[in-house]
Amino acid sequence: MQIYIDADACPVKDEALKVAARHGLVIHFVSNAWMRLPEHPLVRRAIVTEGPDVADDWIVAAIEAGDIVVTQDIPLASRCLKKGAKAVGNTGKPFTDASIGMALAMRELSQHLRETGESKGFNAAFTRQDRSRFLEAMEQTVQAVKRGL
């Protein structure tokens, strides 16, 4: 089991590393540009070329069943689930086979509303509660994978 972070806009890099270190798991930070990351023997950095979905494609090619991916990118989460990996959002919301269809549909609806001007695309601010939920969800996900769920 390894952890992969869609790192370009991820606000929970430190929290993910905390969980990875607690369990001795290698953690890959995948981004389109160099970023400052903590120095840790379990940290791996992957810098991919700029372009749409290049980081997503790298992650999907690298993951295996039982790995964990941290992303807010719903299509990426869907691709990861299809490969047998677990996917967790930055706010601690796990993506599952049961929920991914609705998440994709809501994403398309929101995109349509933004394109037609009916929605301004407001995103809620990231909160301390979101960080706490993320830590709890990551711990639960690691435990579930270890139990073979």
Describe the 3D structure.
Helix 1 packs parallel to helix 5 and helix 3 packs antiparallel against helix 4. The radius of gyration is 15 Å and the shape is globular. With 149 residues, the protein is of the alpha/beta class. The two termini are 13 Å apart. It has one domain: Rossmann fold (3-Layer(aba) Sandwich).
List keywords for this structure.
single chain, 149 residues, alpha/beta, Rossmann fold, 43% helix
Strand content: 5-15%
C-alpha-based Rg, rounded: 15 Å
Report the structural category.
alpha/beta
How many E strands? 6
Write the topology of this structure.
Layout: E1 3-6, H1 13-23, E2 27-31, E3 43-47, H2 54-62, E4 68-70, H3 74-82, E5 86-88, E6 94-95, H4 100-115, H5 128-146
Helix pairs in contact: 1-5, 3-4
Brief summary:
This protein is α/β, with parallel strands linked by helices.
